[in-house]
Amino acid sequence: MQSILRNPLAEPYLLGISSGASLGAVCVMLLGVGGSTLGISGGAFVGACCAFGLIMLITHGMTDSPPRILLAGIAGTQLFNAMTAYIVSTSANAEQSRSVMFWLLGSLSGVRWPDAILALAVVMTGLMVVFAFSRSLDTFTFGDEVSTTLGVPVTLVRIILLLTCALVTAVMVSIIGAVGFVGLVIPHITRLLCGPGIAAPFP
C-alpha cells in the first residue's frame, strides 16, 4: 500500500479500510445477522469495500494524487469510527456491547484453528496477487507518469491491489479486531531485511 500511494505512512488503518471492516463486523455481531467466522468476515469485507468505495468516490476513481487519496482515507476512518461507536453505544445488549468493545481493541486470545486456516489462506492469496504485480509496483516509485510510459495500467493495478488489501484486512479484522499500525511497521521491517524493491522478498 505504501508503494501504491508513494507514502511511507500509508496503511489500511489510515485509509479507512480497517475502520470500515470493523463497522461491518460490528453490524453483523450486534444485529444478529450471523455469528460465525465466515459471517463476520463477510460483514467485515462488505464494510471494507464500502470504505474503498467511499475513497473511490472522493478521489474520482483513484485518479487523484496519492496525498488526496490518503486524506480521503483519513476522513473515512473518522466517519466509520464514529458510526461504529454510535452503534455500540446505542446497542440494547450491554453485555454484547462490552464484548464488542474488547474485540475492537484487538486480541489473539480467541483465535481458533479454523480462524487461523482462513487467515493463512487469505494471506497467501494476497501474497500471490502482490507477486503478480510486483514489477508494476516497483515502477510506482517513480510516479504515475513513468509507470504509464512503461505500459502499466496504473488505475487498474491500484484498484486491484486495494481490493486485495480490503479482503485481507477484512478477514484479519474479523478474527483479531482492528490492530492499528501493524500495516505501517511491517513494510518498513521487510525493506530493512530484503531491500526496497517489492519483488525482492519473492524468489
Automatic annotation (TrEMBL):
The keyword Chaperone does not apply. One of its GO terms (cellular component) is plasma membrane. The keyword Ribosomal protein does not apply. InterPro entries: ABC_BtuC-like, ABC_transptr_permease_BtuC. It is a multi-pass membrane protein. One of its GO terms (molecular function) is transmembrane transporter activity. It is found in: Cell membrane. It comes from the Bacteria. Keywords: Cell membrane, Membrane, Transmembrane, Transmembrane helix, Transport. The chain crosses the membrane at residues 12-32, 38-57, 69-88, 116-134, 155-186. Belongs to the binding-protein-dependent transport system permease family. FecCD subfamily. This is Vitamin B12 import system permease protein BtuC. It comes from Leclercia adecarboxylata.
